[in-house]
Write a structure and sequence with these properties.
Layout (H helix, E strand, L loop, with lengths): L3 E5 L5 H17 L14 H6 L3 E6 L2 E9 L17 E9 L8 H15 L4 E7 L3 H9 L3 E2 L4 E6 L2 E11 L1
Parallel strand pairs: 4-5
Antiparallel strand pairs: 1-2, 2-3, 3-4, 5-8, 6-8, 7-8
Length: 171
């Protein structure tokens, strides 16, 4: 794991990143976790790069995973955080390349996200995860994240509402 590093994503990473996430989305669909599509999360990467909040995990100069760290989240008031007023960052668009699953990459990225968040002076790292995404829930709880009370109902369109749980960890 010495050759792995987390760094800010750059514009030239965009196409490779989208290819990695295309594989992630196909794998999620195969596993009946149909929550990402052609629009989300890939259409958000360019803005994340411009806002300098998208990080990629590289191994031997290959993109292995990525995540965004945002100052806010549309669901942040929908659940009861342990300390509502504390300064927090929100982990978003977290994904690991399919050929790197079950190799500790997710935990490595969460450790990196916590270090980055701490360096930005926040007290909590928070995230939302769709109720049917059990592999992600398992990863977050294994890494010390605690579930907050409540559920965020994210209305995508007339026919689709995602029920998301909030998880957090004190830094």
């Amino acid at each position: 794991m010495e050759k792995m590093k987390i760094r800010l994503a750059e514009q030239q990473d965009l196409q490779k990143l989208k290819m990695v996430y295309k594989g992630i989305i196909e794998n999620m669909n195969r596993n009946q976790i149909g929550i990402w599509d052609d629009i989300y999360p890939c259409d958000f990467f360019e803005k994340d790069i411009k806002n300098r909040c998208l990080y990629i995990l590289e191994e031997c100069e290959q993109i292995v995973g990525a995540f965004a760290l945002s100052d806010s989240h549309s669901g942040e008031k929908a659940v009861e955080w342990r300390n509502q007023k504390a300064k927090a960052l929100y982990l978003d668009r977290f994904g690991v390349a399919v050929d790197h699953l079950k190799k500790g990459m997710g935990s490595f990225m969460l450790t990196g996200a916590k270090k980055i968040a701490r360096s930005k002076g926040v007290d909590w790292l928070r995230l939302f995860v769709v109720e049917i995404n059990q592999p992600a829930i398992n990863l977050y709880t294994k890494n010390g994240f605690k579930k907050a009370e409540g559920v965020y109902e994210e209305k995508i369109d007339e026919d689709l509402i995602l029920y998301e749980y909030g998880y957090e960890i004190e830094l």
